[in-house]
Amino acid sequence: MATRWTPGVWAGLAAISGLLSVAFGAFAAHGIQAWKAVEWLHTGSQYQMTHALAVFAALALHRAGAKGMGLVAALFLGGTVVFSGSLYAMALGAPRILGAITPLGGLAFLAGWALMAWRAFTLPDQA
Fold first, then answer.
1. Given its phi and psi angles, is residue 95 left (phi above 0), alpha (psi -120 to 50 degrees) or beta?
2. Residues 17, 32, 40, 102: what is their CA dihedral angle, to the nearest 10 degrees?
3. Which of 9, 26, 48, 89 is the most buried (most CB within 10 A)?
């Protein structure tokens, strides 16, 4: 049986993403000396935490009736894997050419924010 992409799955993945963000941020602060690697870890960690929290915002909008929040969550979480993941990999010794895919994660973030804004503005009034 395949796992469905449910709000509970979004929340669980967002929580794991937040946990990993803290772990990579701590590693940047205490476990690595190379300044460029520290910078990559710090940047990846910041973007990962921001988008972990944004998935929770997507969940709240979903509960308020906004459509398309599953896609928003997928764009944020997928963007995190590509954007932050490529930075983490380079910080841990992967070839710098991997940085060529980092902007694709950024594009996923932008698409997620654009869709979230569009769908939030089209929410029905609950007053």
1. beta
2. -70
3. 48
pLDDT for 124 equals: 81
Ordered by start, the domain boundaries in the chain are 7-121
b/e code 83-106 from CB counts within 10 Å (16+ = b):
bbbbbbbbbeeeeeeeeeebeebe
List the structure tokens of 38: 């520290």
Q: What's the pLDDT band for 125 if we cut at 50, 70, 90?
A: confident
Rounded to a whole number of angstroms, the distance between the first and last alpha carbons of the chain is 41
What amino acid is encoded at 127 in this protein?
A
DSSP state of 66: -
Residue indicated by tokens 């997507």: 58
**Secondary structure of residue 41 in the 3-state scheme:** helix
Give 19's contacts (C-beta < 8 A, 6+ positions apart): none
Assign 2 a pLDDT band (cuts: 50, 70, 90): low
